[in-house]
Amino acid sequence: MNGEVKQKSNTGYMLFRIPELIADITAGMTLEPGDVIATGSPAGVGASFTPQQFLRPGDVVEATVESIGTLRNPVVDVR
Q1: Residue ranges of the domains in the chain?
Q2: What 3-state class would DSSP assign to 61?
Q3: What confidence tens digit (pLDDT) does each residue in 12-46 have?
Q4: What is the per-residue burial (b if ≥16 Cβ within 10 Å, else e) of 51-70?
């Protein structure tokens, strides 16, 4: 967030492995090209800090996936 790493992890630390997730999901539905499986968040969420840290308008969040790239999202106030 804003150039500071808040969370850094990989799928090796997930509670459930990717093949297990896919098997469980496809037992009840068909995954189509482009479907996204949300797996949750690694340690380091803002509510766990003291004091708590939350996103504010003007913040920039970056998410990077190796071999894919980086997605940058500005935080805006929609009110």
Answers
A1: 11-74
A2: strand
A3: 888 889 999 999 999 999 999 999 998 887 777 77
A4: eeeeeeeeeeeeeeeeeeee
